[in-house]
Design a protein that fits this description.
- It comes from Paeniglutamicibacter gangotriensis Lz1y.
- InterPro entries: DUF6350.
- It holds the Pfam family DUF6350.
- The structure is a single chain.
- The chain is mainly alpha-helical.
- It folds into two domains: 167 residues, no CATH class; 236 residues, no CATH class.
- The chain is built from 19 helices and seven strands.
- Strands 6-5-4-7 form a four-stranded antiparallel sheet.
- Helix 2 packs across helix 3, helix 3 crosses helix 6 and helix 5 crosses helix 8.
Length: 442
């Protein structure tokens, strides 16, 4: 009997080893994260390099070797990851002091490619790990992406373009890290499951006054974000309509360039890649802040001065002609603020109004002060978001006049904040008239 008991553990171990041989050993999380991000880096590089090769194959890059085309593709891969490029032959000589320029214009549409690839990888990493071990997969993923950026920056430097190795190593981690974190959170379903921190339990331990203040602040932030996103959507719709109206002018530029089938395809992809930038420029235009297209060219609803522009088809749709009524477009951000004020009334509780009304007896005064404060807070947050959007959409092309391209960051933020604040205050006051109680209606 004792012999049988001794044989049972050995048999169990043998069966477990056989089962392991059949199913295989699980991949370590850090290695799985590295593998997922390596796929993302390679796939995004292919999407960039293949159109470049197609142009080179059809004779688009004269007197350039395949090595030079590969380096250009690597430079573009770094650029869509927001890595600035130092152009060394912008002028007549190679000396950087005579003709150098900084190319830091980010094509946001192309930046979405690595972002969504990393977002997908983040979901897969979260699906394969527990909350307390998720960091292993993320660290492995970011580590391999860091090496990809360093390797690319080391290979693409030439006599025309120089890339900082430190920037090439670290900056690509920003869109990649944002993608993996958001993707992991999407898979986890909540930040609490993602990081193991129960925010609801922590809030429940705070005082009632703290919860009221936090609820008010959160509703204000959501209202400001809603106002900015709605303004962005209105700017996108306006840009689409404007492109449709000027489609003949855009087609004429294509015909004058005669880039061929491959060239037209790559040119169209490039314009699609900067479409989010153009939407943010349209947002700056409707606020009145405006945007610049090179030194001396300013376009806004209040003033338009346009100098010589490059032959890019989409630029044929710039607003021209009689713009005396263009100021009316500044009402669009006011409408977005109105909807934010209505949103606050529906989902938020105006605890600030309760606090003010307890200290000021005159209801008309307390309500007026709290409503003005609400509008200012909502508008201020929308303006802060505008600072980030305008900064990301602009930059320098490093060529001649085009060292200044993009929205007027401060003016756009200030005007948007004022317009949204006005709309939010009016929307909060008027929206009760638009609400209907189904019980009372019956």
């Amino acid at each position: 009997m004792s012999e049988k008991k001794k044989q049972q553990p050995a048999a169990t171990a043998i069966n477990a080893a056989r089962q392991r041989l059949r199913t295989g050993w699980p991949m370590p999380l850090f290695l799985q994260g590295a593998f997922e991000f390596l796929q993302a880096a390679i796939f995004s590089a292919f999407l960039v390099v293949i159109p470049w090769f197609a142009v080179w194959f059809t004779g688009g890059f004269e007197n350039r070797s395949i090595e030079s085309v590969l380096k250009m593709g690597g430079q573009l891969w770094l650029l869509i990851h927001a890595v600035p490029l130092h152009l060394l032959q912008v002028g007549t000589g190679v000396d950087p002091s005579q003709g150098s320029g900084l190319l830091d214009f980010i094509p946001l549409g192309l930046t979405l490619i690595p972002f969504f690839l990393c977002w997908r990888a983040g979901r897969r990493i979260a699906r394969a790990s527990y909350t307390d071990s998720l960091w292993q997969g993320i660290v492995g993923a970011l580590g391999i992406y860091l090496l990809c950026g360093l390797f690319t920056g080391f290979l693409v430097n030439n006599e025309e373009t120089n890339v900082s190795l430190l920037a090439a190593t670290l900056i690509p981690l920003i869109p990649a890290g944002a993608g993996v974190v958001i993707g992991a959170r999407r898979e986890a379903g909540s930040w609490g499951r993602l990081i193991g921190f129960d925010a609801a339990a922590w809030i429940a331990k705070t005082s009632q006054h703290s919860r009221w203040a936090g609820s008010y602040v959160w509703a204000v932030l959501c209202g400001g974000a809603l106002a900015y996103l709605l303004t962005f959507a209105l700017a996108a719709a306006l840009l689409s309509v404007n492109l449709a109206v000027h489609w003949v002018d855009v087609s004429n530029v294509y015909q004058q360039l005669r880039p061929g089938a491959i060239g037209s395809s790559v040119l169209t992809l490039g314009q699609l890649g900067i479409m989010p930038n153009l939407v943010l420029w349209a947002l700056a235009w409707i606020t009145g802040g405006g945007f610049t297209l090179g030194v001396g060219s300013t376009l806004s609803t209040l003033e338009t001065t346009v100098g010589p522009l490059p032959a890019i088809p989409v630029l044929a749709a710039l607003p021209t002609g009689d713009l005396s009524y263009a100021w009316a477009f500044m009402l669009l951000p006011v409408f977005a603020g109105f909807m934010a004020g209505w949103y606050f009334l529906r989902v938020g509780e105006n605890h600030l109004d309760d606090w003010v009304s307890q200290r000021i007896g005159a209801r008309w005064l307390s309500m007026g002060l709290s409503t003005v404060a609400l509008g200012v807070f909502v508008g201020a947050f929308a303006g802060v978001l505008s600072l980030a959007g305008s900064w990301l959409s602009g930059g320098s092309l490093g060529i001649g006049r085009f060292t200044e391209v993009g929205p007027d960051i401060m003016m756009t933020a200030v005007l948007l904040a004022a317009e949204v604040a006005l709309g939010a205050a009016v929307g909060y006051l008027i929206s009760p008239l638009l609400e209907h109680d189904p019980v009372l209606d019956r």
